[in-house]
TrEMBL record:
Keyword Membrane applies: yes
Keywords (A to Z) from UniProt: Membrane, Transmembrane, Transmembrane helix
Transmembrane spans: 7-26, 38-63, 70-89
Protein name: DoxX family membrane protein
The organism of origin for this protein: Mucilaginibacter celer
Length: 124
């Protein structure tokens, strides 16, 4: 189980690292997804990119991985609460928006599970 968890953690970290790179590559588009009431859209896009990449690095090197996963999960839940839920309220029959909300719910759940595994089994 420990080996499978470790491989899964590295795969998850790779996905998060790639998402971070994509935030830099497509910053102007991603900035349009930040709710209008939040100022400094590009700052938050770059901050999110660095947070995604930092959490991935913490998993790769095994330093503060539990905290990296917990903070990542909380950040993704902020996205769910501030972006996805308002979009679903306004257009709840849009399949793409439902899929994106569920995807982020799954990603946050995986980060919480990884944090628990780091806590329980101490994988590095």
């Amino acid at each position: 189980m420990k080996q499978a968890a470790k491989v899964s953690a590295y795969i998850y970290a790779t996905v998060m690292f790639i998402f971070g790179i994509q935030h830099f590559m497509y910053a102007d588009f991603v900035a349009t997804l930040v709710p209008g009431w939040i100022p400094f859209h590009l700052f938050w896009v770059y901050f999110t990119a660095l947070a995604l990449m930092s959490s991935a690095v913490s998993i790769y090197i095994g330093i503060c991985a539990k905290w990296g996963c917990l903070l990542l999960a909380c950040m993704i839940w902020v996205f769910i609460l501030t972006i996805h839920i308002p979009l679903l309220i306004n257009s709840h029959f849009d399949g793409g928006k439902i899929t994106n909300a569920l995807k982020d719910t799954g990603l946050a759940s995986c980060a919480f599970i990884l944090a628990w595994i780091y806590q329980q089994e101490g994988i590095k």
